[in-house]
Q: What sequence folds into this?
């Protein structure tokens, strides 16, 4: 089985383990295909051992949060490159913050995510962001899921955070 298919299958199964493709296939289309199918990094032979070690260290610093360009959850699809939510023929555009929150939910399907984690991951260095910002954006996302007639919902979990549910 080709490594591209293995990477794609892992990502479709929501396995977020970092993937480094180490291969002799060195054309630009090979590299693009590997990265687009879910690889986090791509290195070709021959390679310097110190470069391989540096790339492995870089991958292990990340938290394994991978979102494919198109991710399905429940009855809707999210296309990261265009920030679009789709269900059937209905679609809606998400603004940058909405899209970042949706990506966070899709990397941790059906897991409770705290307001603090959302602030840390989405607003990063904007120190004035608070729980009211999170509540407002969750409300926007809920409305957009309703607009496309999705059965999936962002549920509030009292004193804990939010969870995307099918």
A:
């Amino acid at each position: 089985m080709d490594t591209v298919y293995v990477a794609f299958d892992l990502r479709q199964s929501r396995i977020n383990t970092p993937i480094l493709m180490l291969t002799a296939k060195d054309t630009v289309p090979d590299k693009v295909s590997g990265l687009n199918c879910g690889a986090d990094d791509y290195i070709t032979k021959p390679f310097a051992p110190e470069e391989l070690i540096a790339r492995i260290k870089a991958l292990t610093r990340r938290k394994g949060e991978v979102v494919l360009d198109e991710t399905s959850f429940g009855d809707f699809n999210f296309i990261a490159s265009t920030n679009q939510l789709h269900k059937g023929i209905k679609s809606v555009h998400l603004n940058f913050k909405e899209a970042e929150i949706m990506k966070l939910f899709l990397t941790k399907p059906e897991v409770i995510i705290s307001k603090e984690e959302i602030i840390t991951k989405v607003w990063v260095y904007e120190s004035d962001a608070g729980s009211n910002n999170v509540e407002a954006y969750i409300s926007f996302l809920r409305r957009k899921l309703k607009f496309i007639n999705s059965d999936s919902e962002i549920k509030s979990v009292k004193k804990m955070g939010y969870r995307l549910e099918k």
User: Anything to note?
Assistant: Helices lie at 3-12, 28-36, 49-61, 96-107, 115-123, 131-147. Residues 131-147 form the longest helix (17 residues). The first strand starts at residue 20 and ends at 23.
